[in-house]
Amino acid sequence: MKNKSLAKLLLAVLLAAGVIVTGVPSDVQASVTAVTKIDNATKAIAHAQGLNLIPDGARAAAKQNGDKWEVTFKNDEEGPGGGPLLYGTIVLYAKTGKVASYATGLKQSNYNVQPGGDPDDESVMTYSIEESITIATDFIKQQDWKLEDSWVFNPYPLSENSTKFDAKQWNHVRFDRSHDGIRDSWDEVSVTVDRWRGEVVSYYVDWEERIYTPNKGNQASPISLYKAGQLFYDVIEPLLIWQGVKDPNQPELVYALHDQYVMAIDGTIPSEYQRVNPPLEENIKPAYSSKLAKKRLLAMYDLNLEYINGNLAYRLRLQPEITFFMDGWHPTIDADSGKWLNFLNDPILTPFPPAGEWLVHAAPAGKIGYDAAILWNNELLPLENEPFIRDGYTLVPFRELLEKLGAKITWNAKERKVTASKEGTSIELTVDSETAYINGNAKKLDAPARLKNGRTYIPARLVLEAFGLKVGWNNESRLVLVGTKDQMPVPTQEELKRHRFQAQLNWENKALH
User: Fold this and answer.
1) Residues contacting 297, CB < 8 A, separation 6+
2) ∠ CA 216-221-227 to the nearest 5 degrees?
3) Can you name the residues that pair with 53 across neighbouring β-strands?
4) Judging by DSSP bridges, how do beta strands 373-376 and 479-483 pair with one another?
5) Whether the predicted pLDDT of 444 surpasses 50
6) Are 153 and 21 contacting, i.e. CB atoms less than 8 angstroms apart?
7) How many CB atoms lie within 10 A of CB 219?
8) Measured in Å, how far apart are the chain's first and last C-alpha atoms?
9) pLDDT per residue as tens digits for the range 259-283
10) Has residue 220 been placed in a domain?
11) Residues 403 and 427 both lie in one domain
12) Sorting pLDDT into bands at 50, 70 and 90, what band is 33?
């Protein structure tokens, strides 16, 4: 795929909180706010064209409706299902020429699939998801719509139910309005990119004039993000519900959260967003801890400062990596086993991203209970078997770690000997022996391999370095740092806090079983 590393870098930048992808320079802003009296259809169309709101080649008409002019446009090409392929409506104030609303769209007409290809086969796509986001971003910049405010990439996914008929060949890239650098998801742009051709095949824009309170973020004195997080953490409690969508006769008792949580910038919860947990009719005490369920459920969410209905507020949003079937049907936790469940009560096996910084600061820290955890290329490695420390040395699960590296593993039960090999490198260890053999050459181990609960554990450094990995240790967070590239990952203090929090959460969850 073309320019993959550059595209990934761009995506990483876009995913950062509220990064603007289109800006409004001061000279453009001046043209947007300049007073232009409109007293006939010709002026209305010309003004809309001057704001770049009518695409080249489109035919426009205008009519007055009270104190506003309505400009409509379309092209002569027929779109799928009838009607014009390109269409739009612009509403302008007659006295000032200010845009009251703008709606336009290009229907998707090019559904051509690569000859002999499958539109759902990821391997035949020429452009990656990241590259399609770049294409959509460039497209918006090229349109240069002269509207108040800017657009910001929306990384948050739509529900699986709303996208179940979408083929992978066409990626729908969404952007939200950004007022004074703050997201407002009421207005949006959606751009559909053909990932085989690298072309924009459809788009739509939905924008309306809005009064913001406050109009500028720096005109307000909101509580801090961390204070808002602390208040959310204190007020939110998971609810116990019987979940039985798949089989109403065999429901599962689960911990869940409400569909949305919003807080005003003064720390109060608006009445329309106040939530009350309904009492459970049965007198049941779940086996799984509600406090731990609360931390794990909240770890799914980002905390953002956004405009909602024109008002500045804090809002919890599911992290972009979390998938859900339908709005309000977010992942739940089995109240007895602690397992993640989807809305059908099927187990969720995909690892979740680490908790956001807001929760790391809000939730009680407590003491570290785990012996060690592994940070692989600066990502916490999910393990079924926890590493442990023996005689001052960190021992890690042999099979899980080496399979992560892609090595071939063999076990000789009679001799209690494990062997891993990859790309011409072979390492052999015997349980309780302080000698390892790397390509047949004896090497003294810092600590012998150990057998625990039927699993073989090995000293991390020598074994991983034998396969060319970089290995380090962060004592404060008890993290084994592993890098598969030339340099050792160097996590920031904030990243260490997040990884430490998630490692502790994982350990607490396993400690209950």
Assistant:
1) 238, 255, 256, 257, 333
2) 125
3) none
4) parallel
5) yes
6) yes
7) 11
8) 44
9) 999 999 999 999 999 988 988 888 8
10) no
11) yes
12) low
Residue in the structure block whose two tokens are 């490692």: 503
Q: Which of 443, 474, 452 is nearest to 397 (CA)?
A: 452
Q: Are residues 354 and 377 in the same domain?
A: no
User: Are residue 188 and residue 263 in the same domain, yes or no?
Assistant: no
Nearest to 509 by CA among 392, 386, 344: 386
Left (φ > 0), alpha (ψ -120 to 50) or beta: where does 196 sit? alpha
User: Contact 354/499 with Cβ under 8 angstroms?
Assistant: yes
Rounded Cα distance, 132 and 201, in Å: 12
CA angle, residues 397, 403, 407, in degrees to nearest 5: 120
Please give the tally of structural domains in the chain: 3
Dist. CA 152–CA 320, nearest whole Å: 15
CA distance 95 to 203: 31
Same domain, yes or no, for 36 and 163? yes
What are the residues facing 80 on neighbouring strands? none
Q: Is residue 6 part of a domain?
A: no
In the structure, what pLDDT confidence band is assigned to residue 13 with cuts at 50, 70 and 90?
very low
Q: What is residue 206's predicted lDDT score, i.e. its pLDDT?
A: 98
User: How far is Cα 509 from Cα 340, in angstroms, rounded to an integer?
Assistant: 11
Q: What is the DSSP secondary-structure string of 377-392?
A: TTEEPP-SS--EEETT
- The reply to whether 229 and 346 lie within a common domain is yes
pLDDT band at 15 (very low <50, low <70, confident <90, very high): very low
* pLDDT (average), residues 164-182: 93
Q: Give the span between the Cα atoms of 172 and 2, in whole angstroms.
A: 19
Domain that residue 401 falls in:
373-511
Q: Which of 468, 231, 511, 211 is nearest to 370 (CA)?
A: 511
> pLDDT (tens digit, 9 = 90+) per residue, 130-171?
999 999 999 999 999 999 999 999 999 888 888 888 899 999
370 touches 504 (CB < 8 A):
yes
Q: Mind listing the pLDDT tens digit for each residue in 395-411? A: 999 888 888 889 999 99
Q: Are residues 400 and 419 in the same domain?
A: yes
pLDDT tens digit string along 339-361? 999 999 999 988 888 898 899 98
Q: What is the DSSP letter of 120?
A: T
State how far the Cα of 119 lies from the Cα of 157, in Å rounded to an integer: 20
Res 21: pLDDT: 61
Kindly write down the DSSP assignment for every residue of 54-92, as one continuous string.
Answer: S-TT-EEEEEEETTEEEEEEE-SSBPTTSSBSEEEEEEE
Residues in the chain: 513
Tokens 């990483």 appear where?
Answer: 12
Entry pTM: 0.82
How would you label 22-49 residue by residue, b for 16+ Cβ within 10 Å and e otherwise? bebeeebeeebeeebebeebebbbbbbb
Q: Which residues pair with 395 in a beta bridge?
A: 388, 459
Domain final position from 208, 239, 257: 208
Question: Does the residue 35 lie in any domain?
Answer: yes
Residue 10 lies in a domain: no
